Amino acid sequence: MNSPSFWLDSLGPIEKRPPLAGDLSADVAIAGGGYTGLWTAYYLAKADPSKRVVVLEAEYCGFGASGRNGGWASGLFPVSEAKLSRRFGPDAAAAMHRALGDTVDEVGRVAAAEGIDCDYAKGGTLSLVRSTVQLRRAQGDPGFVDADTAKAMCRATDVLGGVYSEHCAALHPAKLVRGLAETVERLGVTIHEGTRVEEIKTGQIKTMRGTVTAPTIVRALEGYTAGLAGHRRDIAPVYSLMIVTEPLPEEFWQRVGLARRETFTDERRLVIYGQRTADDRLAFGGRGAPYHFGSKIRPEYDLVPEVFEALRATLTELFGIDPPIAYRWGGPLGIPRDWMPSVGLRDGIAWAGGYVGDGVAAANLAGRTLADLILGVDSDLTRLPWVGHRSRRWEPEPARWLGINVGLRATALLDAFDRRRAA
């Protein structure tokens, strides 16, 4: 079965909110009804209820990555602390990673406080070590655990150890984004769905249904940024695909574990990610789908049969099962040229994104940071190293298409080479 995602489909039919019905004025206008836009609206509304905040969404809240992701609210950041230290200094690097770790708890706190039942379970995340090659790479990691400790959490095949972090929670991403949309509406935020943003400039967001004028504009489009006029080379939309099994029997979970719903991956280079859902399915995804020329995004790109088959085969390899697959889907995530997410406000235009697939928690931190920037609050958040960062633009085509796809292919080949070395 194919749908925008298992997560969204599990919520039943979605009724879109009314679209924009002509020109409008506001204090803050937000382009994008995913996590970044909604968290920004939430913290603005909590801090200053008098502000008129309007969110514009092309489809419906959660249609993009916020309703399709793997459900990891993690403290992961795509730039290592060591690299951040070299560029920004050790104190700033530590603050960035600490803030993301704390954000995992903030997501859970707000969900509980606002009555958003998103199946939040903070079991941490485990990267399994399953070959001697991976073992050599992982042993120096401060989160390294031995084989017995790793197997106590997840009894996959060939486990030699693992790298564990407490800073991750599994959740139902669509319940979170839809619940957040309902919450911000209760707080007085206006959401217009079915309203595609065509152009952003100082003081204005232009759509086919009218123009919203506001002294502060927020661009929160993540992987869809490339479709905005003047932004085609800012963010590369790269696809990540997922499968979800039918509910698996209790004897499987007794054998495999994941009792605290720890999220899991392994130490291969081509990213995979999984979780045990609240209704005892395996939700499992990974990279490997191609980047499409000209940063194009189309519905048919969500479905790549060979990638779905590779994901199913990986579950068989990990757990010794041939699971019944209930859902298959995909979607674009946003990758900046230097893999460095950013948040900022300049000349009345704010932005956040480029999370490289780790945006469930990072978008919350971005929303809090944007709220402080917009309200003129000098805080620890506004001094984090991603604030004001500008990544250089991606190369023009065909260099962009060639470079990204060669990189994806090379990563897969390196994993195959490692498997041969370990055999």
Brief account:
It comes from Actinoplanes subglobosus. The strands form 5 sheets. The chain has a 6-stranded mixed β-sheet with strand order 9-3-2-13-20-19, with helices on one face. 48% of the residues are buried.
Written description of the protein model:
The protein has 423 residues and is α/β, with parallel strands linked by helices. It contains eleven helices and 20 strands. The strands form five sheets. The protein has a six-stranded mixed sheet, covered by helices on one side. A four-stranded mixed sheet has the order 1-12-11-10, with no helix packed on it. A four-stranded mixed sheet has the order 6-7-5-15. A hairpin with a 5-residue loop joins strand 16 (272-276) and strand 17 (282-286). Helix 2 (35-47) runs parallel beside helix 10 (359-375), helix 3 crosses helix 4 and helix 4 (90-113) crosses helix 10. The protein is globular. It holds the Pfam family DAO. InterPro entries: FAD-dep_OxRdtase, FAD/NAD-bd_sf. Keywords: Oxidoreductase.
